[in-house]
């Protein structure tokens, strides 16, 4: 794996507001902001301006942020996950299979429109993991 686990914060339509708040509080920078409408992803019109992904950095503080997809509610407990970046497809496959055992798969391990292999899994202990391997 590469680096530390990264907190991924999920919001119910308020990701932009939260990012700007964190920017003021922590004097940081917002980067890689993309809306659902800008992404090559089938999206209903009401989600066009919602954030599908953004990053926030201030010194060593690094967060990833998104709005939930329409129809998916944000409940305290499912609004944060830990993101792991992997160095190989073999490594992500092994971790995905292990976390999936006795867990819940939210998104199967698959190739994505952002050029990565990705999965989202809640393990047997209720921890939600975003698994990502960016292909070169």
What brief labels describe this structure?
alpha+beta; 2 helices; 136 residues; globular; 44% strand; eight-stranded mixed β-sheet
Describe the structure.
Strands 2-3-4-1-5-8-7-6 form an eight-stranded mixed β-sheet, with helices on one face. The chain is an alpha+beta fold and 136 residues long. β3 and β4 (61-67) form a beta hairpin. It contains two helices and eight strands; from the N terminus they run βαββββαβββ.
Helix content estimate: 10-25%
The low-confidence runs, each spanning 5 or more residues with pLDDT under 50, are none
How would you sum up the major sheet?
8 strands, mixed
Integer average pLDDT:
92
Briefly note the structural class of the backbone: alpha+beta
Order of secondary-structure elements: EHEEEEHEEE
The outline comes out as globular
Strand content: 35-45%
- Please tell me how large the radius of gyration is: 15 Å
Count of helix runs = 2
Assembly state of the chains shown: single chain
Q: Please tally the β strands and state the result.
A: 8
Give the strand order of the largest sheet, numbering strands 1, 2, ... along the chain: 2-3-4-1-5-8-7-6
Q: N- to C-terminal separation?
A: 15 Å
SSE diagram, text form:
Blueprint: E1 2-11, H1 15-26, E2 29-35, E3 51-58, E4 61-67, E5 80-85, H2 89-100, E6 104-111, E7 116-122, E8 128-134
Parallel strand pairs: 1-4, 5-8
Antiparallel strand pairs: 1-5, 2-3, 3-4, 6-7, 7-8
Short description:
The protein has 2 helices and 8 strands, in the order E-H-E-E-E-E-H-E-E-E.
């Amino acid at each position: 794996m590469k680096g530390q686990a990264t907190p991924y914060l999920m919001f119910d339509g308020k990701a932009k507001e939260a990012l700007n708040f964190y920017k003021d509080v922590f004097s940081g920078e917002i980067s890689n902001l993309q809306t659902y409408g800008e992404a090559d992803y089938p999206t209903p019109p009401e989600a066009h301006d919602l954030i599908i992904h953004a990053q926030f950095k201030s010194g060593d503080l690094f967060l990833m942020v998104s709005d939930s997809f329409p129809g998916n509610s944000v409940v305290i407990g499912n609004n944060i996950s830990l993101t792991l970046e992997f160095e190989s497809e073999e490594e992500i496959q092994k971790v995905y299979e292990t976390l999936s055992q006795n867990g819940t798969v939210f998104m199967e391990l698959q190739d994505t429109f952002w050029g990565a292999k990705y999965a989202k899994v809640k393990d047997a202990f209720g921890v939600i993991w975003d698994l990502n391997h960016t292909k070169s």
